Amino acid sequence: MCGIVGFVGTNKVKDVLLDGLKELEYRGYDSAGIAVLQDKEFSSYKAVGKLDNLVQKVADFDPKGFAIGIGHTRWATHGKPTELNAHPHLGDASYVVHNGIIENYQEIKNELMAEGTHFLSQTDTEVIVHLFEKYLATEATPFEAFQKTLAKLEGAYAILLATKSMPDTIFFAKNGSPMIVGVNDEGEKVFASSDAPLIGHAKDVIYLGDGEYGFVSPTALELFDKRHQRVKPSLTPLPTSKLSAQKEGYRFFMEKEIYEQSDVISDAMLGRLQDESINFDELDPTLFDGINEIKLCACGTSYHSALASSYLFERYAKVRTSVEIASELRYKEPLLLKDTLFVVISQSGETADTLETLKMAKAAGLKTLVICNVDNSSMVRLADASILTRAGIEKGVASTKAFATQMTVFWMLALYVSQLRNTLSIEKIKDQIHALREVPNSVKIDDNLHEKIRRLSKRYLHGHGFFFIGRDVFFPLALEGALKLKEITYLHAEGYPSGEMKHGPIAMADPELFTIALMPKGLLYDKTKSNVEELSARDSTICAISPVTFDKADDFIQTKEHGHYMLEFFEMMVVLQLLSMEISVRLGNDVDMPRNLAKSVTVE
Q1: Where do the DSSP E strands lie in 302-380?
Q2: β-strands 465-470, 293-298: how paired?
Q3: Are 581 and 254 in contact (CB under 8 A)?
Q4: Contact criterion met (CB below 8 Å) for 410 and 371
Q5: What Cα–Cα distance (Å) separates residue 343 from each residue in 303, 400, 503?
Q6: 599 — pLDDT class (breaks 50, 70, 90)
Q7: Which ranges constitute the DSSP H helices of 24-163?
Q8: Contact 212, 192 (CB under 8 A)
Q9: Going from the N-terminus, what domains does the chain have, and what CATH number goes with each?
Q10: What is the structure's pLDDT at 410?
C-alpha cells in the first residue's frame, strides 16, 4: 500500500511531491522521501515516521525553475524502517522509487555484488537502480537500458526512475501495482498511485495497464505495452473531488476497503512468507524463550481476531493461549506470570483500554508484543516488539481490512512460533504456506456474489434479531459478523458457538429470528449442520453460508471449495462484511460513519 508521486514541470516540484505524498498517507507508511533533479544535480531527502518529519527536513529546500522529482511513502518489507531503507534509492547518478516486490531481487543482487556493486540498503528496490546503471554503460540510450532492466525483473512493481543522463525525463513502468500519469495544458506531467494527488495538477490522466512502461519529458509522453509496441495514450478526464477520488469509484470507503483486502493481505505477507518458512525480520526469536503461555488482549474487532487466533496458536504451535478483553483485564486483578508473552492487538495503537493493559504487563515484567497497523503509535513505542499489519489507513469506522490483516499476521505468527518450538514438520509448514499464498485470491470478490448478497439484503431489514453461529475459528468470525451488523445497521445481532444454541438461545427461535450459519466444508461441517437443523426445526429463518448446498436453508450463499478451512474463513469474512454493508445501505444509514462510534477509542 506504499505511495508514489512524480513530477516534470516548472516552479512547483517540491509542493507537488509533498502534497501528493500527503494525499497518499491514507495508504499507510513508515518512512518517506523525495529526490529532485535540477540543473543536472540531485537533491534527496528522507525521513522515518510521519510525513511531517520529511517536511521539516525540506523546509529550506526551495527549487525554482524547471525540475523533475520523484517521491515515495514506504511500508517496510525488505529491511527495517530506516532512512537507508527509505526510498528513493540512489545509484551513481540515478534515483528510483518502487512499489511492489521484486521476487528475484536476491539473485540480481548477488550478481551485481559479484561484479563490484555496493549496496546501501536491505531492500529489494535498490537492485533496480544498480541494474539500470549497469545497462546504462552497455546500451545505446538510457531508455534501452531501462527496457533491459525491466526485462530482468520478476514480480509486481510500479517504478519511477530519474537519471542525470536524461535530466528532463522520468522513466516509468507498471506491473501489478497501481500507477497513474496525469497531464495538463502547460505540458507538465504528474505521477501518483491514485487519483487524489493529481487533482489540481492534472487535467487528464492515463490509467496504466500491467506491462505498460515508457517515459515523459516536457515535450513527450511515450507509452509502450508489454509486447514493446508503442501505444497511443488514452486520456481520461480527472475527477474534481478529492474525496470521490480517494474512494476510487466505490460508493463508500467501507466498500473500497472490503475490495482492497486482497492487496493489503498480500502486503502483510511481503518479506514474511518464504518458500518453506515464515520470517519476521522485526522479531528477535529470543522473545519466545522461556514462554509457556501467550496472552492475547484487545477490544472489539481486534478481540475477535485474537480469539480466532488462539485456536491457531494452540493447534499449530502447541502453546497455551488465553484471550482477554482489555477493559475487563484492567480491573480483574489478573495473574500475570513472567513466563507469559503478553500480546496486544489494536488497529490504531492508541486504544485506551488496550494501552493500559500493555502498561500493566510491562510493569509486571512480562515480555510484550503488539500487533498494530500504525507505526510510531503509543503501543508500538511501548512494547518490546511489534508487527505491523500494513493494512493502510482505514477510513470506514467499521473495521474490515484491519481484521483481515490481523488474521493474516496471526496465522503467520502461529506458524513462526511452531517453527521455533518444532511442533510442525517442514512438510506441514509448507502446506500451510501454500494455503497462505491462496488467501489474497480467496478474498477477491466475484461480481455475481456481491449482486446476490445485495439482492438478499432486502429480506433482512426487519425481525427481532440475528444469530450468527459457527464452530472453532468460525465462532469468533460469527462474533465479528454480528458486530459488523450491529455497528452499521443498528439491528440486534449476537454471535454464538453453534453447539451452544441448545443451551438456552434456541428458545428465541421463530420465523422473525434470522440465523446466519457459517458452515465450512473443511471443519466440523456435520456438527454445524446438526445445530442448524435444530434451529430450522424451530422455524428460524436460515441463511447458510457454505460451499455445500444445504436443503433446509431459506437463503443460501455458496462459497468456493478450498483445501484449507482458513481459506473458507477468509471468504466467509468477506461475505459477512458485504451482507452487513448492503443491509445498511438499504436502511439508509451512513455506512462509513455510523452513529455513536469513533474510529479510534482513546478514552476509557
Answers
A1: 320-325, 340-346, 367-372
A2: unpaired
A3: yes
A4: yes
A5: 11, 21, 32
A6: low
A7: 51-57, 105-114, 126-136, 142-152
A8: no
A9: 3-247 (3.60.20.10), 254-442 (3.40.50.10490), 445-587 (3.40.50.10490)
A10: 98
- 332 carries an active-site annotation: no
pTM attached to this predicted model: 0.76
- The sign of the dihedral angle between the CA atoms of 304, 568, 400, 268 is positive
Q: C-alpha cell of 588? A: 439508509
CA distance 558 to 556: 6
- Given the residues 2, 299, 372, 543, select the one marked as catalytic: 2
Q: What angle do CA 254, 256, 257 make, to 5 degrees?
A: 65
Distance CA(30)–CA(81), nearest Å, equals 6
- Residue whose cell numbers read 481486534: 302
Instruction: Indicate the range of 358-367, 374-383, 423-432, 479-488 predicted with least confidence.
Output: 374-383
| Helix (H) and strand (E) counts in the chain | 19, 25
pLDDT of residue 243 exceeding 70, the answer is no
| Burial of 555 per CB tally in 10 Å (0-12, 13-18, 19+) | middle
Query: Which helix (H) or strand (E) covers residue 262, if one does?
Result: helix 261-269
Q: Report the interhelical angle of 105-114 vs 126-136 (nearest 10°).
A: 50
Q: Are 405 and 265 in contact (CB under 8 A)?
A: yes
What is the average pLDDT score of the chain?
Answer: 92
Q: Is the dihedral of CA 22, 261, 473, 555 positive or negative?
A: positive
Of 286, 192, 290, which is closest to residue 245 (Cα–Cα)?
192
Question: 208-221 burial, b if ≥16 CB within 10 A, otherwise e?
Answer: beeebbbbbbeeeb
Nearest CA to 341 out of 305, 368, 371 is that of 368
CA distances (Å), 338 to each of 183, 281, 291, 387, 421, in order?
A: 60, 24, 8, 21, 19
Active-site annotation holds for 372 = no
How far is the C-alpha of 518 from the C-alpha of 443, rounded, in Å? 16
Residues 6+ apart with CB under 8 A from 297: 306, 323, 324, 325, 326, 329, 342, 343, 344, 345, 354, 357, 358, 361
Neighbouring CB atoms inside 10 A of 26's CB total 17
